[in-house]
Design goal:
Strand content of chain B: 15-25%
Number of strands of chain B: 10
Order of helices and strands of chain B: HHEEEHEEHEHHHHEHEHEEHH
CATH superfamily of one domain in chain B: P-loop containing nucleotide triphosphate hydrolases
Structural class of chain B: alpha/beta
Radius of gyration of chain A: 20 Å
CATH topology of chain A: Methane Monooxygenase Hydroxylase, Chain G, domain 1
Number of helices of chain B: 12
CATH architecture of chain A: Up-down Bundle
Number of domains of chain A: 1
Shape of chain A: elongated
Oligomer: heterodimer
Number of helices of chain A: 7
Largest sheet of chain B: 6 strands, mixed
CATH class of one domain in chain B: Alpha Beta
Strand content of chain A: under 5%
Radius of gyration of chain B: 21 Å
């Protein structure tokens, strides 16, 4: 060997772990996107497939967790390295929960009656999904690039997601005719909106961990991007 | 079991909001017998040491807190052992050494001319890398120092021996063979005997220069556990190459490096609570060293 870097093996292992986290991120992004599309089309077959696919998400998450713990035990990481591995453990938990939200949307799709759904609500749900997925994608990029500045900025977009959630709620309340069917539909659709709103919250948590890797401080980021005092 | 949880929750509710992680706050403020006026046992003040023309240590300033374990880490040749030996004037024994600056042991500079160097070395004891028991009995090893101080009565010596060996966590293993040769002990036991020997003269500070590097892992961990007990009574400073050991064992860590490849003068790069040095150091050089990316 012409030149030996002192932690080549460890650095390669960290890179592999990072790749696996990105794969997990991609899996849950796909699940959320497909679950909302399936709801739009009322495609129950697709919904059932996505629902079943959550098992692979869980397996992936646990595999990464085991590999991360192994690396901690065998490589005695310090400083930034240990913060990075600790962040992975938190981030995969958040991603797995986002996967659960996708699964929840599929279940709602399967539970809703066959009556057509209000296109305005479906459009808003799609917008919520698009916003949240955009936040998620960029947060994972920020993680790969050790970009704490972008990570601080992403939570500010949560306001838009919250606004859509409130809008859906008011719209559905106004249209409510107080029949059991109508109430049933409102509560299922609100739950779908709730899942998408929670996805954006999870992305905020991911951003907090990215900032932690850079600074060593765990601080809550509120929707203005400021660290909450 | 529920009572225990109740107690824990009561304690948790009465705790004021934490401004920093518990481990870190304990490292900084948790000092039961500290003199509020001077929490430091040793103060190194702009200290420089030359071996002849070679400047081995350059303008070091640092404090060593009482009843804590301070680790000194850094790459080979950065002056860690030189610094350690300066704390009890062992470097005086090297021809051509001269120093500038001050080192205060409890508010008195040990480099002032006329200081009783022998007394300094009694107050600041040392344990070396390779266990070096005298080729005598276990008993005679421990009583060697006290005898030099004129203690002769058997019952006094017996008591000192037991006291020192108990403090070094060796008494139970050797109580029935005190008059056997120390050379028959295992490496780990010999090192604990050397610690007992240092403790027998009632020091205030214990310097340890890589005390476990010649020992097997179990003996090493026993020494580390011993250090946790000893720090309640003594102030401990340890030089170690083993970063995981420094992280396990110490409350504060000092990271040293040479200033440049030409001069090779040892400097203090960063000093702080161990938890901070190993989880979130302030300087990139420190980060590179503790993550093993140095060089």
């Amino acid at each position: 060997m012409a030149h030996i870097s002192p932690r080549e093996t460890f650095d390669r292992a960290k890179q592999k772990l990072l790749d696996q986290v990105l794969i997990l991120g991609s899996m849950v992004e796909e699940a959320v996107q497909s679950s909302v599309n399936a709801l739009q089309r009322r495609d129950l077959t697709a919904a059932r497939q996505i629902y079943a696919g959550d098992q692979r998400v869980n397996e992936k998450r646990y595999a990464i967790e085991i590999d991360t713990i192994t690396l901690i035990a065998t490589q005695q990481p310090m400083a930034r390295d240990v913060r990075f591995l600790a962040a992975i453990l938190e981030i995969i938990t958040e991603l797995e929960r986002i996967g659960d939200y996708a699964k929840g949307i599929c279940k709602i799709n399967m539970m809703l009656s066959e009556d057509a759904l209000d296109p305005s609500v479906l459009a808003d749900l799609q917008n919520m999904a698009d916003l949240g997925l955009g936040m998620l994608r960029r947060s994972l990029d920020a993680f790969v690039n050790h970009d704490a500045d972008t990570a601080r900025q992403i939570p500010t977009e949560d306001d838009l997601v919250d606004a859509l959630y409130n809008h859906i709620y008011r719209y559905l309340i106004n249209k409510l005719d107080y029949t059991p069917e109508s109430i049933d539909r409102l509560s299922h659709l609100m739950w779908a909106a709730h899942n998408l709103e929670r996805m954006a919250d999870r992305v905020t948590n991911i951003c907090e961990r990215i900032v932690y890797v850079s600074t060593g401080q765990i601080k809550e980021l509120d929707s203005t991007g400021d660290e909450m005092k | 079991m529920f009572t225990k949880l109740d107690n824990l929750m009561t304690e948790e509710k009465s705790r004021p909001p934490l401004m920093m992680p518990l481990a870190l706050s304990q490292g900084v403020t948790d000092a039961p017998e500290t003199n509020p006026e001077n929490p430091n046992k040793i103060e190194i003040n702009d200290f420089t040491l030359y071996y002849g023309k070679f400047k081995a240590l350059g303008n070091l300033s640092m404090t060593i807190p009482k009843n804590k374990i301070t680790a000194i880490i850094g790459p080979s040749g950065c002056g860690k052992s030189t610094l350690l030996r300066s704390l009890n004037r062992m470097n005086d024994l090297v021809p051509g050494v001269h120093t500038e600056g001050k080192i205060f042991l409890d508010d008195s500079d040990i480099y002032v001319p006329g200081v009783d160097v022998v007394d300094v070395r009694r107050r600041v004891g040392m344990v070396f890398q390779r266990p070096n028991p005298f080729p005598k009995s276990i008993y005679d090893n421990v009583t060697y120092g006290p005898r030099l101080y004129g203690i002769r009565r058997k019952y006094e010596l017996d008591e000192m021996v037991e006291n020192a060996l108990r403090q070094a966590a060796l008494w139970d293993e050797v109580r029935d063979k005190l008059h056997q040769s120390a050379m028959a002990l295992s490496g780990g036991q010999q090192q604990r005997l050397c610690i007992a020997r240092a403790l027998a003269v009632e020091p205030e500070v214990i310097l340890m220069d890589e005390p476990a590097s010649a020992l097997d892992p179990v003996a090493t961990l026993k020494i580390e556990e011993l250090m946790q007990t000893l720090k309640e009574t003594y102030t401990i400073i340890i030089v170690t190459h083993n970063m995981q050991q420094a992280a396990r064992v110490s409350d504060f860590t000092a990271f040293m490096m040479i200033d440049n490849p030409q001069n090779r003068t040892g400097k203090l790069v960063e000093y702080g609570p161990t938890v901070q040095i190993f989880t979130n150091p302030k300087l990139q050089q420190t980060e590179d060293y503790v993550t093993g990316r140095f060089g």
